[in-house]
User: What shape does this take?
Amino acid sequence: MNAKNESAVIFIDGNNFYHGMRDIELTTGVDFNYEAFSRKLVGTREWVETRYYTGRVQQKADLTRYQMQRKFIAHLERFSQISVFLGRLEMRPAKSSNQKLQNWLNALPRRDDMDLPSNVVDELTMIAQSASAPIWIEKAVDVMIATDMVSMAYEEQYDVAYLVSADGDFTPAVKKVRATGRKVFAASPQHGQKLAGVVNTFIPMGREFFHGCWL
Assistant: This one.
């Protein structure tokens, strides 16, 4: 089938794309033109829609981040062919990164024998004893993307899937889609060696790719 006659759907792994863009010192905020980006990515194919997936920020958990996300979603929904799909964000404790500092403090001689001022030792001890800091973990988003890619392929809603991610966890889903006879292209600013091994083509996106993709 000629590329001009192929229909294309774009599946964006929002968190992965955000971090990939940060790696090349670019942003994907409210000044990023997702319509221009989508049309550039599919080229001569018929762009059917772009589906953007990310974790939902809870208002009670982080009001500032919640407001920022609502603004971003409103920006995306300005484009008629772009839809947003929300998974979950769950708070998890992060393991302390201060164990080496704690070990160093434990190995110090008695305070009376040290040259360090006592207030410095107290401050370092407080830092080392901070057991954990909360972090947000995205849940269900990858499953949503994989399920939609596969189900839409079996329902013949597209000829070509563009997966904007470098996450190798999508490998089984890509294989399922390709088993239907459809094509899958992955695209990312990051390296995706595992994913590159199963898609039709892996499209590396450097800074030059995004020329013309801002409002």
Observations:
- Residues 42 and 167 are 20 Å apart (CA to CA).
- The helical segments are 14-23, 34-42, 63-76, 99-106, 118-128, 141-154, 171-179, 193-196.
- The chain has a mean pLDDT of 87.
